[in-house]
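#lab-general

N.A. 3:47 PM
ok so I finally got the sequence cleaned up, no stray characters, all 140 residues accounted for. can someone with queue access submit it? mine expired

B.Y. 3:52 PM
send it over

N.A. 3:53 PM
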Amino acid sequence: MVHLRLSCAVAMILSLIATSQTWAEEANKLVGTWKLISAKYAGTESNLPQSATTLKHVTPVQMIWLSYDKDGKMTRAGGGRYTLQGDDYTDTPEYGIGDFSVVKGQTHVFKCKIDGNKWYHTGKLANGLTIDEVWERVEK
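B.Y. 4:20 PM
back already:
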């Protein structure tokens, strides 16, 4: 009888954990992997999506973006904490390579909109550079 109660308690705990993880992922539509498909920086169209592949991996509490060339060599990356409240996305990159010093340790505020498998990411870096990016969810 004790083993049955213990088994039921363990099953309930596992079910609650799975439900809370599913709820967290549904509440945060950004969780997953995204590929940059277009970008404008300071109002000028970027050739970054054509010259390199840029991915952003988002967990419930951290994000990391990275760019790599056609040979698979990573050319730039950055990551750290972020928050999402409604359509307000704020990140604070803490680590990276490449042109990372431009964003390191600074808080950057963006608006984000998810429409189907697209993430529209617009706002300014702390240094005033405007960003208008479109990311596409990488499916399994």
